[in-house]
Specification:
The complex is a heterodimer.
Chain A (H helix, E strand, L loop, with lengths): L1 E3 L1 H12 L1 H7 L4 H7 L2 E5 L10 E6 L5 E5 L4 E5 L7 E6 L9 E3 L2 E6 L2 E6 L9 E7 L10 E6 L5 E5 L2 E2 L3 E2 L7 E5 L5 E6 L6 E4 L5 E5 L8 E6 L36 H5 L10 E3 L8 E6 L13 E5 L4 E10 L2 E11 L5 E6 L5 E6 L11 E8 L7 E6 L3 E6 L5 H4 L6 E7 L9 E14 L5 E7 L5 E6 L15 E6 L41 E8 L3 E2 L3 E4 L4 E8 L8 E3 L5 H10 L17 E4 L7 E8 L5 E6 L10 E6 L1
Parallel strand pairs in A: 35-38, 37-43
Antiparallel strand pairs in A: 2-27, 3-4, 4-5, 5-6, 7-8, 8-9, 9-10, 11-12, 12-15, 13-14, 15-16, 17-18, 18-19, 19-20, 21-22, 22-23, 23-24, 24-34, 25-26, 26-27, 28-29, 29-32, 30-31, 30-33, 31-32, 33-34, 35-36, 38-41, 39-40, 39-42, 42-43
Chain B lengths: L7 E2 L15 E9 L7 E12 L9 E7 L1 E9 L5 E6 L3 E6 L18 E2 L9 E2 L15 E9 L2 E2 L5 E3 L1 E8 L2 E9 L15 E5 L6 E11 L5 E11 L13 E6 L15 E11 L3 E9 L2 E7 L2 E10 L5 E7 L2 E11 L7 E7 L2 E5 L17 E3 L6 E9 L2 E10 L4 E6 L4 E7 L3 E2 L1 H4 L9 E2 L2 E4 L6 E2 L18 E8 L5 E7 L2 E9 L5 E10 L3 E8 L2 E3 L4 E4 L4 E4 L9 E4 L5 E7 L2 E10 L1
The chains are: A mainly beta, B mainly beta.
Chain lengths: ~650, ~600
């Protein structure tokens, strides 16, 4: 197919000419360099004339990689793990195929409006049969994405249907916001609803279904939920269709309060259909838009995480790791950082036949920290074992931490090696949630196992229904290595035996106490008798941009800067010392704030920061008053919300 | 809703609209083109159609009694096989009329071309100059009505009679395709009646080259005048209410003298404000004026002389235009225009005016509304000369968004859109294929694919139905007790799809193949039903049975050639909407039929 697209060809040209600056922009961070010793990110080359906005990945029996794209093509890559795979187009003209599976000599994929089987009957390498397995209605809304299929063990298929977007998530036609099961003959059964943006889902070895969700309305943060027939995962829009005789539940949208003041776990105790997540991925810390789920069934050929799940993230171009366990019949577990620094927004992950992981990406319409519009990469285990917390397992009075390498008994039994906190998110109609009800928890005892591979922590202050942040930064391996990633997040729904024996901690203060930040002045200083010398404004544009490339001010002048956050995301505005590296450094420091971030408006305490606003909700405004520095130069204006600072930049020019 | 003032129809009941002319020009009631004959019409007596039938010694050109300067003109033209004529604006500047069906690439001498000028003093071979071919060949088949829409601008002269601006074809649309834009012409065409240039002249239709038929002629004589706005002030308020509140209850944020109407004047970005303009219009001539108002999301209100003329007071989008008309007297007229930008993420309004002798133009300043898709980020799928190109997406058809459609480009350059959910052919077109910018640029808010090129629109109802009897009205949507099931499609060696659909357990297939490089698309249908099944072939204001089992659809907008299906007899009957529809009953059992659409 020939496309005519001036911008696109211009971009390709610009990239070809500017590979130097591209390399600079994508320079590895410290953590990426460390991760790369154990897991290497390798590019799968894409020919220049192919727009490979990856929607789905599937491997054929003869080791060809099938790639479905948002532009509706299916490509076949011969020798996909080789240096220069050969691309041939298997199918085209499809409607945004956001999934791909291979079975019985053909591909299955979800288009926006149907589940389709593709076959190449004459063997010329091109599909000649596009068979509709099952079709569903569409509203015409751009946000009606459809994902899948994934096969169940008995050969049925699962698809998930995204909600439309009309200022909020809406199920405009039947089965949007649902998980459906479809037989190869086209018999459809609705399984569960409450889904909002269910791009990632799959089954584990036991055949249980999990899906990942993105922060949004009714979704405080990214999460993974175990779905069974009749479950309601949290967004009430899809409940519209529960009158249908096929619906396995009867709950209606109006049964759910817009603002209950409860967490989802608490609300689920009142509404049995509502399913609390098995895993929470704290927003901005473990990604911002979770995507595919991939289970490590490599039997150790991908490193020490056999049986665990890897979860992609579109906005942060990274992969997280999940160690799940099932307690009292309920799934829960720990999420960890795994590898970051992919080239675009991760949507799909599958295994190659050499036990490397194919990672398929697209970021069109939704920017990602990996700056490419689309990409295909592989993650390859180097054979070296990283020193990591392999699992965190819940006990009725603490946690058992299992490591990938023998631990140093001294540091591992030192209580100062551990820090813990618990928190959750509000369950509400409003988009997203702040971290709520944050408390410290305390490690009281740390006992190293005889084999030196694990440590039992006795913890005070554990809370059911909360996320437990566990930082084990002080623990060393026997050989003296530090942990590659120091922190895990355990979602505690159950404890073995059913009774929590961790004593309650009475903690004063905690979150909610906003830090005193003297570089943020929102009232005009009384000493400015004649008012500001200059009033300026700065706004935002979609796609992580300020709407002015630069602001020009006189040195020493008194300035009122009005920051208007017109975007549909959170942003701040931080003025940073001149110097090419300072913007990167402040961005990095902000990223490292972790859970403290929200309380500090995501602004690090650094001399590089001159002035800053708070973190602004969408569609809010803040006035910032400051005196311009006396030194002339080009100062930076940044948004330091995690993931934004590399692209969301402007200049403050002091004349 | 009419978005413009009415044109003045040029009466075609008699020849009174024209200067006296020889008998080659006459008024008839209908015309039909015999495809086997060159330059031949078969007329029917009556009124409404202007027909030229030149003969030896009787082939005069025709002039309107009116003289024009700036002119907007609309008309339908029919060309018989191989015929030639021309439209001479001011009797001087020619738009060519010719049977140019399938001509690639089109020349200045093809239909819609601005015919060349001639200079005998030039070197041989270069004597013809400044011919302007149409941007694309938008010619329909001979015997079909072809629609012209022209905005012509006369040359300008100073007080001493010196020409200071050339004549221009502002816009020329043929069959819905823009074929000229702002095309200057430096002087009269070769065969012009007048060789000088003047501020006014009659419209001339060439009569000496070949037969031509014309109907629905209508025009607007424009004077180039505009409404002035001598005084204008603007008050800005904060407001989030959808309905415009009493402005006195709002806190005034600023008041300024303004020199234009523009949404860019809203302060803050993505803020929620009201801009209330008040001022006076200097009305140049008494008469009926039309105001055309649009907001990109939000509300607006136009009051003139305290009368509400255009009302978008509430929550509106670009598709909700408000059109208001007002009788205005010459002189100063007070007006108020209120823009209610209550939607933070939407900004922009448009306000157009048209009046007696005043061509429609914008009262809002340029930039008052931003367009997201620009030429720069346009994404177009082109046809492929060696294989069929398919693309699924959402598609607008007769104002309705269809969600399960596929657009298909054939190597022959004939394309079509098919609704997979109901087995319905929606559109057929030729030329360029598909603009997918609205689907593939950024998030693609509308997710639309837009056909490019000269399209004909088919009825859009379900194409197949089980009817109780031949009086049963055609279903406009799928009855609840009937179920369509999409089966998908299979591609043959050339990549041509055959679509399958199941209607109450009856399997139907549809396949479309161009017969050649002309705009002719053949449809092949197979069906195996347990009872008789009906197929709706076409719908339109009028359906005519012509020779050779061919039908003229929707007053000869396109042809449907049903020959070769001797076993079936189509029926023409009244449609749901009071027009006509063409149906055929397909008996039960294994059946095949095939027919050709051409346009």
């Amino acid at each position: 197919m020939k496309y005519r697209n001036t911008v696109y060809s211009f971009l390709l040209l610009a990239l070809a000419l500017a590979t130097g600056s591209k390399a600079l922009a994508q320079a590895k961070t410290e953590i990426q360099k460390k991760e790369a010793q154990f897991y290497k990110i390798v590019d799968v080359p894409i020919p220049e004339d192919i727009v490979l906005e990856v929607g789905g990945l599937a491997l054929t029996e003869d080791n060809k990689l099938g790639v479905s794209t948002r532009r509706g093509e299916v490509w076949l890559l011969e020798d996909p793990t080789g240096k220069s795979p050969k691309y041939s187009r298997y199918a085209h003209g499809l409607h945004e195929a956001l999934g791909l599976a291979y079975r019985d000599n053909g591909f299955y994929l979800a288009q926006r409006g149907e589940l389709t089987r593709l076959e190449d009957r004459d063997g010329d390498g091109k599909a000649d049969r596009y068979r509709t397995v099952y079709s569903w209605p569409l509203s015409g809304n751009y946000h009606d994405y459809s994902y899948g299929p994934k096969f169940t063990s008995n050969g049925d298929m699962l698809v998930t249907l995204n909600l439309g977007w009309i200022g909020f998530g809406a199920s405009l036609v039947k089965w949007r916001g649902w998980l459906l099961k479809i037989t190869p003959d086209g018999e459809m059964t609705p399984i569960a609803t409450g889904l909002r943006s269910p791009a990632g889902f799959g089954t584990n070895a036991e055949g249980d279904i999990f899906y990942t969700e993105n922060q949004g309305d009714w979704v405080g943060s990214g999460r993974m939920t175990h779905l069974e027939s009749g479950d309601f995962a949290g967004n009430p829009s899809g409940l519209r269709w529960t009158d249908d005789p096929k619906s396995p539940l009867k709950l209606k949208p109006e049964d759910i309060m817009d603002e209950s003041g409860m967490s989802l776990y608490e609300y689920a105790e009142k509404v049995p259909e509502l399913k609390a997540p098995a895993i929470w991925f704290p927003h901005t810390i473990l990604g911002i838009s979770t995507s595919d789920i991939l289970i490590d069934d490599s039997e150790g050929k991908f490193g020490p995480f056999e049986g665990q799940m890897f979860v992609g993230d579109q906005g942060h171009s990274k992969i997280m790791r999940v160690a799940m366990e099932k307690i009292n019949g309920v799934y829960q577990g720990a999420a960890f950082p795994f590898v970051e620094g992919f080239s675009s927004g991760i949507l799909r992950m599958i295994w190659g036949n050499d036990n490397s992981m194919f990672v398929g990406m697209t970021s069109r319409g939704w920017s990602s920290t990996g700056s490419e519009n689309f990409g295909l990469q592989r993650l390859v285990w180097t054979g070296k074992t990283p020193f990591e917390m392999r699992t965190i397992q819940a006990q009725d009075d603490g946690f058992l931490l299992e490591f990938t390498k023998p631990i140093d008994p001294k540091t591992a039994s030192d209580l100062a090696s551990y820090q813990m906190a618990t928190f959750t998110y509000a369950y509400r109609k409003k988009y997203g949630s702040p971290i709520v009800d944050q408390q410290k928890a305390m490690v009281h005892k740390a006992e190293v196992s005889e084999d030196g591979m694990s440590v039992k922590l006795t913890v005070h202050g554990m809370r059911l229904g909360y996320i437990h942040q566990l930082k084990a930064g002080g623990v060393k391996s026997q050989k003296g290595e530090s942990l590659l990633h120091t922190t895990g997040y355990y979602t505690l729904n159950q404890v073995p035996g059913g009774t929590l024996k961790s004593p309650t901690l009475q903690v004063a203060g905690g979150s909610g106490t906003k830090a005193d930040q003297p570089k943020r002045v929102n009232q005009m200083p009384v000493t400015w008798m004649d008012g500001p010398d200059k009033k300026l404004r700065m706004g935002t544009l979609p796609g992580l941009k300020f709407d002015e490339p630069e602001l020009v001010v006189e040195r020493n002048s008194l300035v009122q800067l009005t920051f208007e956050n017109n975007d549909d995301m959170l942003h701040n505005l931080v003025i940073v010392q001149p110097g090419p590296d300072n913007a990167d450094e402040v961005g990095r420091l902000a990223m490292e704030l972790g859970l403290q971030g929200p309380d500090l408006n995501y602004v690090p305490n650094s001399d590089l920061v001159l002035y800053h606003t708070g973190i602004l909700q969408p569609e809010t405004v803040e006035n910032l008053y400051f005196q311009v520095p006396k030194r002339r130069g080009e100062y930076w204006i940044l948004c330091t919300f995690p993931g934004h600072s590399t692209t969301m930049r402007a200049k403050l020019i002091v004349k | 809703m009419e978005t413009a003032l009415p044109f003045t129809p040029l009466g075609l009941d008699t020849m009174d609209s024209f200067r006296p002319v020889a008998k080659n020009w006459q008024i008839v009631g209908d015309v039909y083109v015999d495809q086997t004959q060159k330059r031949t019409f078969v007329p029917t007596p009556g009124t409404g159609i202007l027909l030229n039938s030149p003969e030896k010694g009787m082939k005069e050109n025709l002039f309107t009694t009116f003289e024009h300067g700036d002119l907007e003109l609309e008309m339908d033209v029919m060309m018989p096989v191989h015929s030639n004529s021309g439209l001479y604006f001011m009797g001087r500047y020619e738009l060519q009329l010719l049977d140019s069906w399938g001509k690639e690439p089109p020349q200045h001498s093809d239909i819609g071309g601005i015919y060349q000028r001639w200079d005998n003093t030039r070197e041989k071979g270069k004597r013809g100059f400044e011919g302007h071919p149409p941007k694309v060949n938008a010619a329909k088949a001979p015997g079909l009505w072809q629609h012209f829409k022209v905005k012509f601008l006369a040359p300008r002269f100073d007080s001493e009679g010196n020409k200071i601006e050339n004549a221009r074809f502002g816009e020329v649309w043929l069959n819905g395709i823009l074929i000229h834009e702002n095309q200057e012409v430096t002087g009269p065409t070769r065969a012009a009646t007048f060789q000088d240039e003047q501020a006014k002249g009659p419209l001339m239709i060439q009569g000496d080259h070949g037969p031509v038929a014309i109907k629905n002629m209508a025009y607007k004589l424009q004077t180039g005048q505009k409404i002035g706005i001598p005084t204008l002030s603007m008050k800005e308020y904060s407001n989030t209410a959808l309905k415009i509140p009493n402005l006195d209850t709002l806190a005034l944020e600023r008041e300024i003298q303004a020199d234009s109407l523009s949404a860019l004047m809203v302060s803050g970005n993505n803020s929620q404000k009201i801009l209330a303009y008040s001022g006076t219009m200097e009305v140049p001539v008494s008469g009926e004026y039309l105001f055309d108002m649009m907001v990109s999301g939000g509300g607006a209100l136009l009051l003139i002389n305290k009368d509400t003329v255009a009302d978008l007071n509430g929550d509106f989008f670009p598709e909700d235009r408000a059109i208001g008309r007002a009788q205005l007297q010459k002189g100063q007229v007070p007006f108020t225009f209120i823009y209610n930008k209550h939607r933070p993420y939407r900004s922009g309004f448009e306000l157009f005016v048209e009046g007696p002798g005043i061509a429609k133009y914008s009262l809002h300043a340029p930039g008052s509304i931003k367009r997201q898709e620009t030429d720069e980020n346009r994404i177009v799928i082109e046809p492929n000369e060696t294989e069929t190109v398919l693309q699924r997406g959402f598609l607008m058809h007769e104002g309705q968004k269809r969600t399960h459609t596929i657009s298909v480009a054939t190597p022959q350059g004939i394309h079509y859109a098919f609704d997979l959910a109901t087995g319905t052919l929606l559109l057929a077109w030729g030329g360029e294929f598909l603009d997918v910018t609205k689907m593939w640029f950024g998030r693609g808010g509308q997710q639309l694919e837009t056909p490019l090129g000269l399209a004909i629109s088919i009825h859009g109802d379900p194409d197949f139905a089980f009817l109780e009897n031949e009086k049963t009205s055609w279903p406009d949507s799928i009855p609840q007790n009937t179920r369509y099931r999409q089966l998908g499609y299979e591609l043959d060696k050339t990549g041509t799809p055959e679509f399958g659909i199941e209607l109450d357990q009856t399997v139907l297939t549809n396949k479309f193949v161009p017969t050649d490089s002309l705009r002719r698309l053949q449809r092949f249908i197979t069906v195996d039903a347990d009872t008789d099944i009906w197929h709706k072939l076409a719908e339109g204001s009028r359906i005519e049975a012509l020779a050779q089992n061919t039908y003229g659809i929707d007053d000869k907008q396109y042809f449907l050639d049903f020959s070769g299906n001797a076993a079936y007899t189509p029926v023409i009957r009244e449609s749901r909407d009071g027009g006509e529809e063409l149906l055929v009953k397909i008996p039960k059992g294994e059946q095949k039929l095939a027919y050709i659409l051409s346009w």
